[in-house]
Amino acid sequence: MNKAIGLILWLCTGNLCMAQHTLTTILKDAETKEPLTGATVLQIGTTKGATTDENGTVSLTGLSEGRHIFLFRNLGYEERRDTLDFPASEDTLTVYLEATDEDLEEVVISSTRSTRTIENIPTRIEFIGGEELEEKGNMKPGDIRMMLNESTGIQTQQVSATSANSSIRIQGLDGRYTQILKDGFPLYAGFSGGLGLLQTPPLDLKQVEIIKGSSSTLYGGGAIAGLVNLVSKIPTEERELRFLLNGTSAGGLDINGFYGQKFEKVGLTVFASRNSSRPYDPSSTGFTAIPKTERYVLNPKLFVYFNPKTTMNFGINTIFEDRTGGDILYIKGKGDNVHSYFEKNKSSRFSTQFSLDHRFTENSGLTIKNSVNNFNRTITIPDYVFDGKQWSTYSEVAYNNNGKRADWVAGINLYTDNFSEYPKDGFQKRDYGQNTFGGFVQNTFKTTDWLQLETGIRGDYVTDYGFVFLPRISALFTVSPQVTSRLGGGLGYKTPTIFTEETERIQFRSVLPISPQANKLERSYGVSYDINYRTTLFENISLSVNQLFFYTRINDPLLTEFTGSGTVQLVNVDGYVDTKGWETNVKLGYGDFKLFIGYTFTDAWLREGTQKRENPLTARHRLNNVLMYEIEDKWKLGLEAYYYSRQALNDGTTGKPYWTCGFMAEKIWERFSLFVNFENFTDTRQTRFDSIYTGTVTRPIFRDIYAPLDGFVVNGGLKIKL
Length: 722
Known about the structure:
Radius of gyration: 28 Å
Structural class: mainly beta
Shape: globular
Distance between the termini: 86 Å
Strand content: over 45%
Largest sheet: 22 strands, antiparallel, barrel
């Protein structure tokens, strides 16, 4: 009896073992026949998957007999599906993947200064590529507000009802805590941050990289909430010549042009645009929802390729703009200076960007960078003029070494910021000069196949405020080819200036200067954790889910206080601001359809002594929904819907929740395309359900702007590729 039972068990075990098979695959480039490292193989309908080694080899074990479907994919290559029967006729299978038509350079991340792909960087980075930039450019070709506002966790906050000036809020924190970079240069810091979002057209951008949470190791203070790096296009051997013409039902006109080409030893890019709008008021308030604007932009950039090891580029950015909002009758020439309210903004920007890169070896090199930035802005309202000029510079020397397992970046930098005011009254000047000397080291290390670490330290010496030490760490966990996770955190700081969202609302009138004896640095710490899951459902539906949790705390926040003498003072209150919450992103793909769903929960509070109140102008609940239908090189159709919950306002009241919806269509031919966009076709406007000011029309006191003012606007135009 025992022998019979043993025989049965032996037969069952033998059959079970015989039913288990292994698939060994070598993935190669179809053209070069080179092995593909880091490519993935997934068994459809299961959680089985693996990643290729440096020889392009990967093995999947525990496969049962029968027919199975496998998905082979690698960044920059077309996905391939094969159906295989087991037992297999061959022990090792060689699979060739075809490279896509897109240039692999389009997905290189520059913000972390690493050679790793976005999937292998421990720091969580959100990437907006060229195709998505083009789609957002159809909706708002004149600036980047809409492009950023439609990302989860980001809210572009309008801080002036009449000039439409806006700032970026990441995860509920004020705009001054977000650092905006252009090609890694801080060209929008301090005074020059004003009007920055409104004066950056997207046509000459190659990509946008967003890091949420403290990012101070490489770029210094100011990135408490995160950073946004605007990466410009570079010339390619194939000439690129593009034009965009756009008109709106609100009286806007955009004319943009871009040229880029690389020759043997030199390359050149030139971006030029003219953007204008007529004063527009869809409500009965009599104030402009869109100010009268005329802006000219010219950005030439020269690239020199001395030899394969040494390259240089030098660029100039220029912007000239006149912007007038307020009483629409006055702007149309039917009012006067005494009985009309208006806000005039005359501004100009001039900045240079210089970068020299020399490679000692294929994996190591030295980079020298410098930028000089000049920003002038004059604000004129009845009985008051604010006139200021900022000169700032950024210089850096950095060494990098990129190996198979470890990447190193180390450098020193100097940032100078000098502001001069030219007052037209007897109020004291708010001039200041700030110099910051910094040094940094960052290491990205692949410890095992499932763990990669990125650690960094930075030391900054800020004149008048002392030394700041900024450590940071991030970890990437590869649980499986379908599941990855990131955990990171670090410290940050912000140098005090008079330029905040609160002071911008009052055009800096009666704001007392910052004093190093009375004020101090705002210091922060933050942490975030996310998990990402990718799979294929029913063999033809792609699914990607990303869940992020975040927490940031800022000690001694800089707030405005009204004194008994009628002046406004910026003080570091005894307390802190903390914001916590989560972001959920879901992406579904089926054939030519793509669905994006994003939800953000933000719980932001200000604690001052024993007092506690919600951080104003932060939607606790926000929902993003985008449905895209695209036939490659023929049609693009998009439907959007966004929800904002109630927001606490600075006057103690609460704003109302609202939805906005939009629809975009583009018909594409080989050399040109036609597009039309129905923005906010539900005509959601704050003036429909709430007021935007108190007081009189001639002396208004504007309330917080938390919802759109322009309502339903149609725009459309023509894009040409030559």
